[in-house]
Design brief:
With 92 residues, this protein is mainly beta. Helices cover 11% and strands 47% of the residues. It is built from one helix and five strands. Strands 1, 2, 3, 4 and 5 form a five-stranded antiparallel beta sheet that branches. A hairpin with a 5-residue loop joins strand 2 and strand 3.
Amino acid sequence: MPGLRKSGDVTLTKAIFTDGNKLWDWFNQVKLNTIKRADVTVAMLDENGNPVHSWKLTGVRPKKYTVEGFKSGGNNIHMETIILAHEGVAPA
């Protein structure tokens, strides 16, 4: 149907890694009023880390970032969640 397209947000959740600063650096650019949109490829991986399916998001900017799992005396996994606003999605 012709007309305006509306894209919903994409939410990604993963465990925190010690060397995974690229996403954090990109998010901090937005915090400093330097909104940098990018094209992002999101891949669904199998248990061996091989891509099973992937999508390309266009005009992406980070919208929200949260970290969960910090509890005193606990040894649980810390999870980070990022919500991405985008202008469109297509199979990659």
